[in-house]
Amino acid sequence: MTSSPSTEPRRRTARQVAASVTAAVLVATGSAAAAPVAQAASDALEIDFAVSTGPFKGGASGMLYGLGDDGVPTDAIIAGAGPHHLTQKAPRGAQHPNGDPLEVERAFFENGGEYMMTNIQDYYPDWPYTGGRRPDDFESYLEIVRTVVADVVENSDYPERYVFTPFNEPDGINWYGNWEQMGQTFLADWKAAYETIKEVYPEARIAGPGDSRWQPARTREFLTFAKENDVLPDMFTWHELGRNNLATYRSNYDAYRALERELGIGPLPININEYAMRRDMSVPGNIVQWLTMFEDTKVDAQTAYWTYAGNLNDNMAKSNSANGAWWLLKWYADLGGDTVQVTPPVLNRPDTLQGIATLDPGKRQATVLFGGTDNEVRLELSGLDPAVFGDVVDIQIREAEWSGQEGEAQAPPVVATHRLALDDVMVIDVANDDRLSAYQAVITPALPTQPTVDPTWRVEVEAEDTVLRDVTAYNQSPTDDWTFAASRGRDVGSTNRVTSSLTWTVDVPADGTYRFGAVAGVNGPANGPGRHALFVDGVQASTIDYEAGFSWGYRGRAETLVELTAGSHELSVRMSADGSTLLPGSDISLDKFDLTLVTGPETTTYPAVFARSGDATVDYTAADGGAVEVSGDGAITFFPSVRETGYYDVALEYATEGAAGVDLAVNRRAVDGVGASAAGEWVSTARVHLGKGVSEVTVGAPDGALVSSLTVTRAAEADSETVTIEAEDSSQVTLHGEARTETVAQPTNVSGEQVGQLGGGEGNYAVVARPEQLGAGQYNLSVRYANAERNTGHDYNTDVITRFLDIGEEGGETTRGGFRHNYSWQGFWTHTVPVDLTTDEGDLRLGNATGNAPNIDWIQLSPLTLGVTNTAGGELAIDSAATVRCVAGRAHVVVRVTNESAVPVAVEIGTPFGTRSVAGLDAGRAVSVAFASRQTEIAAGTASVVATGLVDGSPVTSRADGTYLAAACG
């Protein structure tokens, strides 16, 4: 047995640690500012909002092969991440089995895409292309050029938005590596390819040369030749790939612009058409460093494709979920206005604090995105105009943690808030000790109610910092370009013995339900899904089920719920539940664990002032958190994320000046019945079925509305409206042709039976009897599926294959759903496809006439909406105050709630030390509830107070949190 230096979990987020602020005048202390953190190494980021560096470009969000097929990834994921541009293969190209631009262009351009580049050489199936340039047959390549360009012109709905790249990495192994021998050949070939493209499509835009790195000598010759022969590219491209390019890119950029000036060219638009390596993908703190460089120089840039197509280059999770990096990309896409001067501790040094800042005067918001350091961060803010922001500002800081490539991450929480008098310089110390995290700081005029931090109690521990038995801690180099990221650069593997375990002690604040999470790597192609046992105080309390992954280094996330009593507990992750039998698929790399107190149903509120609202006016005096004026054709867009597939109450808070209809749409599907019947404050709540992960919710109000927030709350009790059908159930499913019931090999994460051999021909399909209660209407079809098909011929890309399921309705239409590769035929994921049924009785037909469908364990049909309530009166009038009292040397949090409404309410009060409910609190009455912390010292925190009552016969829920200061009672 080996023991790590420490077995104490790390409370590293600002939900548990504090931040300090300084300014000339401190107006009010935010809940995260009450107790300064211990002295630690600090990096300063200076932001001068008075110095504009130009309009925000947003061009660094591009990606190579970021999209795989139509529906992979989903529209909501694309729209939220907001890539402006992509590079995909040539239409019908054989280089990879997916990524055809004609297949993905709809999803890309309908979700905000500006232009799409296509690598013409990717028409070839092999790598490097054909083994080298064919000396006596370059004309055969020009025929491919003609074919590709003509295909786009004739078959694309957006030919004018394509940019053609005739050569990919010509300086490497692809045809022209030896410049002394092949330089003149390349220049002649460039001219021939350029002229061929223009011959087919005179309006075509052309990009190049596309070198695999900055090549100053080659670039000089290329530009000189191209200018002399009138074949200059419309867009200049090259790659910046390795970690070292975080140090060299800016000098390369400067050298290129200087060369343009010397030659009298341009300036041409630049696209860095591949950037970053495996170590960077999925890591917010790494990606923000790249975004910063490219935004500073106002170029477009695309992440490289190292693993497989269709998952934004590892910057999303599963079929439709966010990981930590996706939230960073969304924040980046949310920016507007001008970028402003940011001075980091040091430029051009990898893995250091870097940041982007913008000022949007029209929206009256200033935003800073930053990260990349293990040190505490000191934000030094200056140059904010009181004519725009007023005399007092609110600052909210959110953290996007690294969650692994396939580790789902929910909306980043508020980890610190500050209310400050606007001054020449304001300094905020942000508690941070993880260079893999990125942060968003948003500055607004002071809101009617000061924002508070997320009160959720949560603790983390590194796997290698637990007591290790019969397992091995491994180093994963954070500087190696090809090594997937690991928290703190280490993980624990070789978890393959009956006696293997990881054990640590944790103190929890209250009796209740806790969510245990593990970031882990599962070698799905070799082992399938996996399983561990979670022991509490020596007794098995739960089972941890891990979904299959790409490899031990490619991390996902597993979660399970466990009941704990307040106080100290020994937690142990074990590879055997009975001490004698190894659990199936137990050989899993474990990176880090977390434990979170669960208080009630999953609920997340999304303030309208931080949603995407275009040019709509933001009113910071309306509602507690401000509001956005929506009218006419305008709309506001939210991107809520949910942990599991099922029903949710989607509550929209708004105010109107009269009767007004509200256009609410979920993933572009209208939800009818939302609106106000008179002037006043309103809460409209739609019970909606949402697929796991990210959805797009848009709100329009042609007659005008002041929208303040969208709150999404799990409504698990409504899941009974979902109809589940086991695919192998012959009483409900009839198989035709070669479609058949099969046994799933062990280990697996389903019951053991599936339906396979669907598709591959028109005769191989399943007919599902239509449930009687499900008539015509909008539905979600959720499918538990497996698809591990892939090509095996490429040198380094995984070349996964999307399988499609055609969902037909007898007498109705057919919908096609894309089901991405999920690593193992033994492991199953759940993916949700929107389906509109037009008949009341037509049976469903599942198959695929043009290819293979995924293997299916079960399907679920869920009505999209179950009803809408529109409640007048807005919020209940609830007041709360939280204080700390010392009793017998221990700190107690006392929460006083006053019902100032005209109706009785039920109240739920949550603190890091427990949750209490008050069944009935009459109008005008107050109640005080004490929570024992069992600690001599506690940090500042927040008590959540949720009140529910009936207003005009309709249920209304309001929240009135109270903050308390840090206290020491010892």
From TrEMBL:
<dbReference type="InterPro" id="IPR017853">
    <property type="entry name" value="GH"/>
</dbReference>
<dbReference type="InterPro" id="IPR008979">
    <property type="entry name" value="Galactose-bd-like_sf"/>
</dbReference>
<dbReference type="InterPro" id="IPR005084">
    <property type="entry name" value="CBM6"/>
</dbReference>
<feature type="domain" description="CBM6">
    <location>
        <begin position="459"/>
        <end position="596"/>
    </location>
</feature>
<dbReference type="InterPro" id="IPR006311">
    <property type="entry name" value="TAT_signal"/>
</dbReference>
<protein>
    <recommendedName>
        <fullName>CBM6 domain-containing protein</fullName>
    </recommendedName>
</protein>
<feature type="signal peptide">
    <location>
        <begin position="1"/>
        <end position="34"/>
    </location>
</feature>
<feature type="domain" description="CBM6">
    <location>
        <begin position="723"/>
        <end position="862"/>
    </location>
</feature>
<keyword id="KW-0732">Signal</keyword>
